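PT: before anyone asks, these are the final sequences, not the draft ones from last week. 591 residues across everything. Please model them as a single complex and drop the result in this thread when it's through.
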Amino acid sequence: MTEPPLLQVANLDVSFLQRGGGVTHAVRNVSFALGRERLAIVGESGSGKSTVGRAMLGLVPRPGVVTANRIAFDGIDLRSLSPRQWRQYRGRRISMVMQDPKYSLNPVKKIGAQIMETYSLHRRGGAGQARRHALEMLEAVRIRDPDLVFDAYPHQLSGGMGQRVMIAMMLIAEPDLLIADEPTSALDVTVQNQVLRILDDLVAQRGMALIFISHNLTIVSSFCDRVLVMYAGRIVEECDARHLHLARHPYTQALVAAAPEIDRPKAELLTVQRDPAWLT
Amino acid sequence: MTAGSRTIEPSGLVSVRRWLADEAPRSAAQAFFGKTWRGAMALSGNPAALAGFVIVVALALAALCAPWLAGGASPLTQDLAHRLAPPSSASWFGTDELGRDIYARTLFGARATLTIVALVAAIVAPIGLVVGTVAGYLGGWVDAVLMRITDIFLAFPRLILALAFAAALGPGLENAVIAIALTSWPSYARVARAETVTIARSDFIAAMVLLGAPTWRILLRHIAPLCLSSVIVRLTLDMAGIIITAAGLGFLGLGQQPPAPEWGAMVSSGRSVILDQWWVSTIPGIAIFLASLGFNLLGDGLRDLTDPKNL
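LR: through. Structure below.
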């Protein structure tokens, strides 16, 4: 590992100015480096994990302010990009799979047209070439009848198919980094595994890096290489995904303990006992 | 008229109907025709909307086939010997102060009215969509500026503002169209903005942004198509208002210029003789009334039909 990491973040801070003059810090002092690997960010709702993902794409919603000592992607300083440069970089170098395919596909456009549009945003080539690539991509996400799905509208697909279409759309421009923001939480369990396997294969085949944002520890420990645990906007622990049960931080231990296990049923599920000391 | 053909025809119709009403269409085309058929059935189940539809179709036919329906009578030929003649078998609706056949003039007048309606619709919908979607999507000061301009236009009574524009531009059909269009775009901008504000927050727009799509592309390809349906419904409801405004401008001498027939101008020319020769004003007046009634009823029916809460 002599080459510099793909993504380097140092002291990332995201804060939202409130109307009364107060400031909410959604993300504080987050630093990490990412090679071509699978990194998970876990944490409870509101811990800032999605905001970190959005900051990598320059898409923190409006009153939010992003500051960092360094956000570098493949040697490019992301803090100094103009809106035009951001557009060339989003989707082409980094893209993001969102949570619910029901809302993240345009309901009045055909699947094929939506995938082709992404292709033509970033790649040269005529409609014929775009169409061929879109069909190939649908096949790559294991859509059984690409021609049929190509001409279908989003409401005609199931949730799992919709999410696979979404993955196809996000990967067609061959980005180097994919951010998956809870890509399976809107799907049911059997479909979840199928979608994850497809995601896993595509990431491995293309040698991409993946940031996997989730609150599902079981999925994370079997699917990712490294885990960042976030609490209240901070990274409280970084550990190897396979050794999550050996975590040292009490918050991570509590998260692991809170997950129910099928062969050891508990009368009452554990809740996280918070310690104000974690906030410092 | 053989027995064979009589038995085949009904069963053919029944199978067509079954194909249309199929709950599980086997192709997109069948689903489309089935949906259209169900829509037509719903429309025909609503007597008011059906009446509106019949009136609008009759109006369009009258405008298209005016030369044939008039039976050779020209709307411009003067016959001073028979001026102000009452309705008779020779001229069904009587003649005006220059002896011109009112029946023929009313038929040809439909052309002027429909031309204005069509042109205004073609100008107003895109302007309203552009202003509304840009304001709704960009927000901030762009939104504030565009919506305050819209408010200024909305603050004036429509006919007065159209009158001012038409007077400034000079009388004539084209200028009447421009004047009416200038006064009717604000409500479309409002409708489009309201739709855009809700659409802009949805995930699929966020997905396009994070895929690196430029703003104009998101507006044109993703937001405008979704606003279109409410703009179209608004347009059909607005047609009646456009017809009345057009007739008002014509009445005041700012629309289609004489001698070409226009309903508003015809009503105006009969004003001085309304007590003795009532038909000169009444017939075009009825035409204006029927046309705006027809569009209104049709618009109401279409609104009910496209309202998802109503299905």
